[in-house]
């Protein structure tokens, strides 16, 4: 869908408002990624609070900059998945164990309860869920540094 098919703005409460080509106004719409790991900037649905889709975006970059910024800001506010850039240390290879990792949001520690908390997503991505349910992403396990890859290999 092109940017000419709808307009986006924010209301006084900071919620997204979509006005479609027919002039219908939908308040409080939320962007939802169809493929948040493999293709985060493609296939985005704009849905109402009751889950009804009111617009579809094939490629986010095809929208005007202002609309892209509104959608990205909304997504960042709702999605929290730090991306692991390096595994610094872990307390042991026995479960549970504490991992110290560097992410795109800083260095942190988390407890991994078991092997089942490391999940493959596609051919090269992993999602690691800590004992609090927070999910960490490794976008490409083959491009991560050698020491981190060695640690991952012990769990996969």
What is the ordering of alpha helices and beta strands?
A: EEEEEHEEEEEEH
**If you compute it from the alpha carbons, what radius of gyration comes out, rounded to the nearest whole angstrom?**
19 Å
Distance between termini?
40 Å
Low-pLDDT windows of residues? none
The helix count comes to 2
Walk me through what this model shows.
By secondary structure, the chain is of the alpha+beta class. It is 15% helix and 42% strand. It has 2 helices and 11 strands. It has helices at residues 65-78, 146-155, and strands at residues 6-10, 16-20, 25-33, 42-47, 53-59, 84-90, 97-103, 106-112, 118-121, 125-129, 135-138. It has a 5-stranded antiparallel beta sheet. The chain starts with 5 loop residues before the first strand and ends with a helix.
Walk me through the topology.
Elements: E1 6-10, E2 16-20, E3 25-33, E4 42-47, E5 53-59, H1 65-78, E6 84-90, E7 97-103, E8 106-112, E9 118-121, E10 125-129, E11 135-138, H2 146-155
Antiparallel strand pairs: 1-2, 2-3, 3-4, 4-5, 6-7, 7-8, 9-10, 10-11
Domain DUF1854: 26-155
Pfam family, one: DUF1854
InterPro entries: DUF1854
Comma- or semicolon-separated keywords:
five-stranded antiparallel sheet, 156 residues, DUF1854 domain-containing protein, three-stranded antiparallel sheet, single chain, 15% helix, 2 domains, 11 strands, alpha+beta, DUF1854
Give a short summary of the structure.
Helices cover 15% and strands 42% of the residues. It has helices at residues 65-78, 146-155; strands spanning 6-10, 16-20, 25-33, 42-47, 53-59, 84-90, 97-103, 106-112, 118-121, 125-129, 135-138.
